[in-house]
């Protein structure tokens, strides 16, 4: 499948490099970075030289209006709309910042859109300014300080506000970049830019139109942003303040803070050490920093002073190292998903949903483990560079954190579900919490747990809690994914598996998935044995029962089982009164299908039904492993025509018999048989043609080599 162009450089067919001063955005969704006002203030770029003064003027204007309001309106008045006119002007005309979709930055999952700074956030900001006006005659030196004090305002809202305030400058910066890149106005599109500039006389925003690059994914203009402005979090923020406090010596903290508060900090760090804080602008972080400010009001000024006097410590995001996998990992996953689509894009029942989940797991393993993609490299970072080479093996590497492992699982599974039109509720829970999967036909809940070996806990109490939580949450499907990053971790996993083997998970569908993310690519993951191990390798066998075909299948199945490859075969899968049709349809959807072609097979209604299902599910040439017995006559045109005639005669016989009865008396399955015979007649010649094109050794050669070539081909298909 051709990869879709999603980067600005790809859409406009221009060369982009890491040396460019502008950020090359992905246009179909947000890149999880924000525009940091402090980085804007530091800039020496002439396009942005007046921004600091512009910010100060804007918030001085908003602060003056807020100071004249006097009191924050009551919640009752806010709900009823009974608000002072100045308050209304402040929240509707001045402080209502929309999402700056033009920059493609933010924290949306599969879009460039977001809530922006709508009415609720404008109200929060207005209330904060009113309260600050009671304490001071002037606004804070840095407007982003407000985020530290205001619940509900985080890094994304600060970025939105900043993007709006510098939008005029971004417009002209983008047009200058287009000139540099020789993108002329005739290749651009006339677009209205909302909130282009703020009119200080009228205290409201103006819109204006320009020729700008056009984003085909959201039908909005594109605004390019200097790399120097981008950070994971703003320099002045609750999280950065938290890190500042944490960096101070323990003795110094104890001298300033009471012992109980210091113990809370240590406890909080311990609880979050492995999982890491997924949203560092969360209420919990703000609660801690506000407690510190109450204990020591001057500590905030110390932090602001540290930012101002040590600007080199607060720098732009390092795009080259990309330690948080914000840039390279999503782009690598997008490329992988485009080239490796799922065999199934929807499901209608529990069994099909399970197959869908297994497909996701197999794709995850393929991305991380397959040498063609080497996704495991995204889980390692260069700790110290000892040479100039690009070969990772020659660097001192360090395995990344538990959070990065979770992010990889969330990103890959989320991308596949998005492309398959499967909606996810609470997608950020992927890798940690239960998530609802919903397509047009079926809805089900599943839990993917992504762990590094140091975080695996299979003791009895942990498993009891897990199973109890699953049942309470009505979660039937659980995949426990362990990323093994070293031989030492591999040995620890063996011990952990011994613990889980003892535990009875009863009715829950629990599967343990082991993924080799080590630099040592020869770890023998397949040697691990556990009854809870997921069905990672499953082969469907399609053949005509009895005779030589049955003997061949018996021999092959024995060898496959020794290789830890699971087999779907009628004699092992079907029980009394099971649906033959459902089983044959399942065979047809298999990722890898071994077909034992014999004369009996080519004349069997059941075998040919499996074959037509297999062909209709697509890419059958990539999924088939054919074995051809001597009695299958597929190489001479006259003999092939005999098979076509055989099915034509079947069809004609049924057609003729139908004329002797009333159509109303015929059961639907008779009509299905006619359709099947017609389908077989149309496809058998094409299928045999493909078989003749394959290089297929005689069956005795396969038997003499213990089916070595067959097993190798099966492994190749299953690893895709």
TrEMBL record:
Residue span, TIR domain:
535-665
Where does the signal sequence lie? none
- Please give the Pfam families that the UniProt record associates with this protein: TIR_2
Could you list the residue ranges that cross the membrane? none
Q: Which UniProt keywords apply?
A: Receptor
Q: Which InterPro entries would you find in this protein's record? A: TIR_dom, Toll_tir_struct_dom_sf
Database matches in Gene3D superfamilies = Toll/interleukin-1 receptor homology (TIR) domain
Source organism, top-level taxon: Bacteria
Q: What is this protein called?
A: Toll/interleukin-1 receptor domain-containing protein
Question: Which organism does this record belong to?
Answer: Calothrix parietina FACHB-288
